[in-house]
Each structure stands twice: as C-alpha cells, then as structure tokens.
Amino acid sequence: MTDRDRLRELLRARSVRRGEFLLASGARSTYYIDARATTMSGLGQLLVGRTALDELDRLGWRPAAVGGLTLGADPVACAIAHAAAATGRTLDAFTVRKEPKAHGAGRLIEGALTPGAPVVIVEDVITTGASALRAARAVAPTGSPILGVLALVDREEGGRAHIEGHGYPVAALFTARELLEEGEEAGAG
User: Which has more pLDDT, 186 or 87?
Assistant: First the structure.
C-alpha cells in the first residue's frame, strides 16, 4: 500500500463525517470532511507531508515555502516542510492570520516566508476557494510568486474553478468523491 493509499484510508476513517452540516461557505451538505482530525495526527502528518511533497515534485512546483490561511493550512504546510527536511531539502512553512496581529510587529503572515521567494498556497479542503484566495491576497504584496494551490481535498463544488479564474493553478491530493463510499453522491445535500 502506497503512502497515498494509506492517507486516503486514514482520511476516510478519521475525517469523513456523515449527517447534516452547515459548511463555512453557508451551504448545507450531507457530509463533512474534518481534515484536521487527520492532519493533526502523527500518522497523518507523516503521510500528508510525504504525499504532498511527491505531488509538488510531480507538478514540477519548486517552492521555497508553503503555507495558507490558518488553521486548516497550518498542519498541512508544516507536514510538507518536515517531509522535505527529512529528505535533505529546504522548504519552509508560513501561516496567514485571519487578521493582522494587534501587538508586536502586527504581522499578517507568520513563519518563514522570504519576500520574493516562490510559494505554494496549501489548503486542507477546498469548497469555494475563498480561503486559498485570501491567503494569496496576503502573500501578493511580498512579491513572492505563487506557483499554485495544493489542497488535501477538493470538494468539487466550484472552488477549483474560482481559484483558477484568479490565475492560480490548482492540484488536489484527493477529491471528495474519492473519500466517500462508492455509489454515494459527492455533492452538497
């Protein structure tokens, strides 16, 4: 079983919930993907990092840093940075706050983002694409080129097209359809 296969099974077991849910987008759904239940576990960190790093390599994206809007992107970015370090590569992580810090340096971006260095925006779950675009807007003034957006899961509800409409390529390790049991609809209920 590959790391990707193991990660898919872990997401299915820990992160996919069924019922009636109100999503952050305001839409209602018959399922919810709580990726943090996977991305914040030790095994999830290992598998997310290695699988995402493999995907970055497959895409030919060579960022100096990965990061996105807190909180969903944080464990994804840190897992990728850790996996890169384990292979002897330098790849840093950053996080974008929802609001600038009210004290200290008043930063909107925390962590290891060198202005002008290429980045990949990461996301745990893409629904509308709003979080990834918010992170991209925060990064833009740094002069860092955004190579693309890498998501753990794409719910396939228009977020990819929305992000791509702003000029950023999107890749996802999984679609919601891949995580749901066969024969079930992947759309919002």
Answer: 87
